[in-house]
């Protein structure tokens, strides 16, 4: 019997709206929280109830634990869904939620702690049988230690902040001569960015792909793995396009890794939604990290597997068993997600402002997850992603063709967006033929900038 009757969504924008829709489908009432800046946001208007939790700054609103807990208690909510970002991976907040008699829709605080710290996560991964990148067996505490590990692992290597994430707190070191400066710079960046200057070291893979596996586990020991997503098209370690399944894998590689991930998740006692992220190079997988939350790119998995992952999160948090086994999860077709940001598509500078016209695409196999509308003012306060275009088709070539049509139909006026970049990528031969890796997009953009500069110079000479 469903015990969760009302859910407070501790987030904003498209993910808040996404969670509200899943709750509505389940007959669950919803409570939106919002900053003063977001008083006219779609998630505020659509939810059954709404509570203002503070001013525009995220630290005073969406990161304000006391305000969110107070809102949940005042509205008699049964549970809190954090979405992604903000408080979604803050273990101390999870503990407070449960101390107040509320249900947390996500992994346990213990699992968030264990997998949130990169050093501990790697140790856990090794214990659970996941393949890892050769690296230090713990924190690298001094320059001498760093040089010793660099020699042992073999250059090039990557210095990483243990508390880092989102591509920050990382620096490549190509040879011993670069180590001293790189070590100090990464340590300083980690201290200022994360309040923790603990570093560790890994072998630097030169041409890897970013492959990740979606996991769901219930409170009764059942675990399933939803196949994989290819998220290799990245700029500064930020994903730009994601697709499911990863067409570059063989069926054996896919099947083997699903089994490895399933075994690892069961050994961990993992519950709710999570993602195992790997680097994949020359037929080998290396554990990168685990995200103990819902992912931005979860819709491509939903489209291919026909499962509402947010609904499943709520069911699991409510104590229900998974209603299917691994054998039931058979991928069907291909899906690609395009992150549409309010940014200049050439220099990627955020471009907040008023949307004067918003007309999303439609048709068979086209889904748009967004919370903006004509007249909506994009604030400069938060992340610049304003929409996700998810396209589905029976196979990858058909999906690319349909995606080109959908991007052409997608009209957003008043602000600059990254739609032109997505269109360029779809037309590129390397993208069509899967001839790309994690570093491809950076090189593509750099070459494009050089070409544009050359054209500008030629035009000025004329």
Overview of this protein structure:
The protein is an alpha+beta fold and 462 residues long. It folds into three domains: 6-105, Rossmann fold; 134-203, ATP-grasp fold, A domain (Dna Ligase, domain 1), CATH 3.30.1490.20; 209-447, ATP-grasp fold, B domain (D-amino Acid Aminotransferase, Chain A, domain 1, 2-Layer Sandwich), CATH 3.30.470.20. It contains 15 helices and 20 strands. Strands 13-12-9-10-11-14-19-17 form an eight-stranded antiparallel β-sheet, sandwiched between helices. A hairpin with a 2-residue loop joins strand 10 and strand 11 (238-244). Helix 4 runs antiparallel to helix 5 and helix 12 (396-409) packs antiparallel against helix 13. The longest helix has 22 residues, at 440-461. It is globular, with a radius of gyration of 22 Å. The relative contact order is 0.11. The mean pLDDT is 94.
Layout of strands and helices, then pairs:
Blueprint: E1 6-9, H1 13-25, E2 29-35, H2 42-46, E3 49-54, H3 65-74, E4 79-81, H4 91-99, E5 103-104, H5 109-116, H6 118-127, H7 143-153, E6 157-165, E7 168-173, H8 179-194, E8 199-203, E9 209-217, E10 223-235, E11 238-244, H9 251-268, E12 272-281, E13 284-291, H10 298-305, H11 309-317, E14 334-341, E15 353-354, E16 357-359, E17 366-370, E18 377-378, E19 385-393, H12 396-409, E20 411-413, H13 419-427, H14 429-432, H15 440-461
Parallel strand pairs: 1-2, 1-4, 2-3, 4-5
Antiparallel strand pairs: 6-7, 6-8, 9-10, 9-12, 10-11, 11-14, 12-13, 14-19, 15-18, 16-20, 17-19
Helix pairs in contact: 4-5, 12-13
């Amino acid at each position: 019997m469903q015990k969760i009757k009302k859910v407070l969504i501790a987030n904003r924008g498209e993910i808040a709206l996404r969670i509200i829709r899943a709750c509505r489908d389940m007959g669950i009432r919803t409570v939106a929280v919002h900053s003063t800046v977001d008083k006219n946001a779609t998630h505020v208007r659509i939810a059954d109830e709404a509570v203002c939790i503070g001013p525009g700054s995220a630290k005073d609103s969406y990161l304000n634990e006391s305000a969110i807990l107070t809102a949940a208690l005042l509205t008699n909510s049964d549970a809190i869904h954090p979405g992604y970002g903000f408080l979604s991976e803050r273990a101390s907040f999870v503990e407070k939620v449960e101390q107040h008699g509320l249900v947390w829709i996500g992994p346990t605080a213990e699992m968030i702690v264990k997998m949130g710290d990169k050093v501990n996560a790697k140790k856990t991964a090794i214990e659970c049988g996941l393949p890892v990148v050769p690296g230090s067996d713990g924190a690298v505490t001094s320059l001498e230690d760093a040089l010793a590990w660099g020699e042992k692992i073999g250059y090039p290597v990557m210095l990483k902040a243990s508390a880092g994430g989102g591509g920050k707190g990382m620096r490549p070191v190509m040879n011993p001569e670069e180590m001293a400066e790189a070590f100090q710079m990464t340590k300083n960046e980690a201290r200022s960015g994360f309040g923790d200057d603990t570093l560790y070291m890994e072998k630097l893979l030169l041409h890897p792909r970013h492959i990740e596996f979606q996991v769901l586990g219930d409170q009764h020991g059942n675990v399933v793995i939803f196949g994989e997503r290819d998220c290799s098209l990245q700029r500064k370690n930020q994903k730009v396009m994601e697709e499911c399944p990863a067409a570059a894998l063989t069926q054996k590689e896919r099947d083997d890794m699903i089994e490895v991930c399933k075994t690892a998740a069961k050994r961990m006692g993992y519950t709710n939604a999570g993602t195992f992220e790997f680097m994949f190079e020359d037929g080998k997988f290396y554990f990168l990290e685990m995200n103990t939350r819902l992912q931005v790119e979860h819709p491509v998995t939903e489209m291919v597997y026909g499962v509402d992952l947010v609904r499943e999160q709520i069911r699991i948090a409510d104590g229900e068993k998974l209603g299917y086994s691994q054998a039931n999860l058979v991928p069907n077709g291909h899906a690609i997600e395009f992150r549409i940001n309010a940014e200049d598509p050439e220099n990627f500078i955020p471009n907040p402002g008023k949307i004067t016209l918003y007309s999303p695409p439609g048709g068979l196999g086209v889904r748009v997850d967004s919370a903006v509308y004509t007249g909506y003012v994009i604030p400069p306060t938060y992340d610049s992603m304003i929409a996700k275009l998810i396209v589905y088709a029976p196979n990858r070539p058909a999906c690319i063709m349909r995606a080109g049509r959908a991007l052409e139909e997608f009209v957003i006026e008043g602000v600059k967006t990254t739609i032109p970049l997505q269109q360029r990528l779809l037309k590129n031969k390397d993208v069509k033929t899967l001839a790309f890796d994690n570093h491809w997009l950076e090189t593509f953009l750099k070459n494009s900038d050089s070409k544009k500069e050359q054209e500008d110079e030629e035009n000025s000479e004329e």
